[in-house]
Design brief:
The protein is an alpha/beta fold. The chain folds into two domains: 246 residues, Rossmann fold (3-Layer(aba) Sandwich); 38 residues, no CATH class. It contains eight helices and eleven strands. Strands 3, 4, 5, 6, 7, 10 and 11 form a seven-stranded mixed β-sheet that branches. The radius of gyration is 23 Å and the shape is elongated.
């Protein structure tokens, strides 16, 4: 259900992201995502200076006069936003939940895409694909995507990234740019990520909250796994416990970062409550140098 509060959030995000797109993002996005390459446009008569390698010998033989093939850049892209809506996305220790941060990031990417005449689609998943919006163009379509993200109520608390990627591989017939937004608290991801990255241009956006990395000393605290419901009572006054918690949490994030690097999957690492535009632009500029 789309409430008045959600509509206010949509409007706020629209204003904020439009400004960022116009002032910062549009050029960065266009310089990186250029389309699938060159596509055939027409055959025309040969002109002095044309590349002889482009001569269409069939048409030349039929007409008795040299003709060449003309190609143009295929600019249009399909951008898919694959967003994890499991219960862990509803955690946040600052002014925003991880889910709301994900919506803002997706809005920024979506508005950048439509400014470049690309299509944008949305897939919201938990341990199943719960919402799929086919790629389309236009600002009205993007606003619908943002409304769905902000107002979505998942049926399942769990997450299954491999199943979500398998679904995308089935429904996307052509190579697309896929932004996978999740905290990546899932099972073995190496094979599904590798397959998806071969079929598409996969970009991971791992989300983490500061309290998932480090705990303050606030006494006894009941920690609950948002996806399984399991709880544990811990004493955060214990320096040893806090250090071990921090060590394991940071090790898990580093393991994920190493996995993405090994699979040559670009990543934008985002911490809720912190700037996500700068790391996004930094990655885009790194990609622009490579391509």
């Amino acid at each position: 259900m789309i409430t008045r509060e959600i509509l206010k959030k949509v409007r706020r995000i629209e204003i904020m992201t439009n400004r960022l797109v116009n002032e910062v993002m549009a050029g960065e996005y266009h310089s990186v995502f250029r389309g699938r390459g060159m596509e055939f446009d027409e055959v025309r008569e040969y002109q002095p200076g044309d590349d002889v390698r482009l001569i269409d010998w069939n048409v030349t033989a039929r007409t008795g006069w040299p003709h060449v093939k003309r190609f143009v850049e295929e600019r249009e892209l399909t951008v898919m936003l694959a967003v994890d809506a499991s219960s862990s996305s509803q955690f946040g220790s600052r002014d925003k939940m991880k889910g709301e941060t994900a919506a803002e990031i997706c809005a920024l990417l979506a508005f950048s895409a439509i400014k470049n005449n690309d299509r944008v689609g949305l897939m919201i998943f938990t341990d199943a694909v719960e919402k799929f919006i086919p790629p389309k163009k236009g600002s009205k379509h993007v606003l619908r995507v943002i409304r769905e993200l902000l107002g979505f109520q998942p049926r399942s608390p769990r997450t299954d990234i491999p199943a979500a990627l398998e679904h995308l591989n089935r429904v996307l017939k052509r190579k697309s740019v896929v932004f996978l937004v999740s905290d990546f608290l899932s099972g073995d991801l190496e094979r599904p990520l590798s397959i998806a990255n071969r079929r598409h241009d996969l970009i991971a956006i791992p989300l983490v909250d500061p309290r998932e990395l480090d705990l303050p000393a606030v006494g006894f605290l009941e920690l609950e796994d948002a996806e399984t419901g399991q709880t544990i009572l811990v004493d955060t006054r214990s320096g040893g416990f806090r250090r071990e918690f921090s060590r394991r949490s940071h090790a898990e994030r580093e393991d994920l970062a190493q996995l993405l690097r090994r699979l040559q999957i670009d990543a934008i690492h985002v911490t809720t409550g912190e700037d996500y535009v700068e790391p996004m632009i930094r990655l885009f500029r790194q990609r622009a140098k490579r391509f």
